[in-house]
Amino acid sequence: MATLNETPANTRRRWLRFSLRTLLIVFTVLGAVLGWVGWELEQVRKEKKAIAWVSAAQGVYVSRSGESGLFSVLKYRLFGGRVYYVHLKNTQVSDLSTLAELKKLESLRLSYTSVTDLSPLAELKNLESLHLDGTLVTDLSPLAALENLSDLDLRRTPVTDLSPLAKLKNLKELRLNETLVNDLSPLAGLKNLGSLSLVYTRVSDEQVQELRQALPNCKIIP
Question: Could you tell me whether strands 107-109 and 82-87 are parallel, antiparallel, or unpaired per DSSP bridges?
């Protein structure tokens, strides 16, 4: 109902401004929702491509929703789960670029493959466990940003430089058996490291003692 000082034209203009504002809000919200749906569908497309690659390489993968609640269950039903585990041990895999699409990956086993370049793994921020034993990997620098990594297996690799591991503050278990490593100083700041295996390495007794002093809670197997 218009006030005494308002004309019907003024009332119509106020209603029009209100309607345009409401319409703008609706379109903004709708655009955000459609953008999110589009992003999710694109992630599903990329993940399916990666899954097909893993299957073609005779590998194994496991996926899950990773969340609970009605919204998350609905999201899982609409878009599918997220791959969190990939096993490619003893396969012919060498190029890991496709795995870069598995953003939710937590565990990756590449033991005894032809992998040498780890750069595609640099964006896998959720990775917690990585097995590279029996590979020809030498450059660990792509792992430097994987802050969630807690389990790393480098047995029987030609790795020598551990400096990229110095920032992995959540690393708890590290296996270096039968490597060419002879300098443990990059590990001295890894206070969460609980287990370190050095069987058949070139590490001196003096270095082992120094690391034990720096990490008194770490079980070191020389």
Answer: parallel
